[in-house]
Amino acid sequence: MQYKMRALNINLPDSLILKMEELAQKDGISVDSFISLAVAEKISSWISEGYIQKRAKRANKEDYKQALELIPDREPYSYDKL
Length: 82
What we know:
Layout: H1 14-27, H2 31-57, H3 61-69
Helix pairs in contact: 1-2
């Protein structure tokens, strides 16, 4: 799939640019790819946050308590113990 691309000219502090270049090189990707990934991650995070907030508004304490009652009262498996 080919995406339409546009150029974007931004000003960033030198410290961010240096760190971004370092991390992009360490990851073996271009600075452009690094920026694209960072923006995509942030957008995804904001979209997810909005989704979670929407779901939380539908939450019901009684339903939550009923769901907890369905959990057996027993010792956790050894791999689940803290």
